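Minimal example, chain plus cytidine-5'-monophosphate.
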Amino acid sequence: TDRTRLAGRKVLVTAGGTVERLDPVRYFTNDSSGKMGYAIAEAARDLGAEVTLVSAKSSIPLPSGMTVVQVQSAEDMYHAVMDRLDTMDLVFKSAAVADYRPAETAPQKIKKSEETLTITLVKNPDILEAIGRRKTGQFVVGFAAETENLEEHALRKLNRKNCDLIVANDVSVEGAGFGTDTNIVRVYDKDGLVEAMPLMSKKEVAGRLLRLAAERMTRQRVSP
Ligand code: C5P
């Protein structure tokens, strides 16, 4: 473990699940714990990187030794990420971003009245896709949580969102995905499978992902 491997490199990590507010007391969210993203941010910090963690809702304490930007919604996260993208070298997009948000956030608590209540949802911006369009040499790692056809879906995402690596996990498998302390992931690049990792702690997965990204970054970059 080389503690200076990412020295001077700026790493942006997104983590947690976005919160899409319906009214002052209610919101839509998902099961993301933030564990994978926080582990990645800590691993990058431990390799000497200057880390910015953009965190939506999580169920674990915020890590130390990095800049933390706390956000709620996908739109908040979009702005927090896009405002900082230009100065970054490496981006890990591990947040679970809600695909839709309520079309309107009611200013007051919605009162119970009719038998049915219809809520219109509108599409959120796809942050990773926007990064893929805007990037200027940043090495970008996306994530894909799937319940079927892992490889096909992951490769399609990698191409559509223009990332350099995609980390796919089958969330239907025990020991992988939301909330757990372990994960089982497969990493792909545009040519296919790069590494299939066995069941291991999210901390170990994070270390391996950082190593893969760091190797490829130096390969892609022209040294000064
Ligand atoms: O399409 P899907 O949500 O499964 O893609 C997952 C990847 O895309 C993750 O890296 C996630 O952080 C990112 N994403 C995003 N903005 C969205 C939806 C997903 O950045 N609105």
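The mean pLDDT is 94. The chain is about 25% helix and 25% strand.
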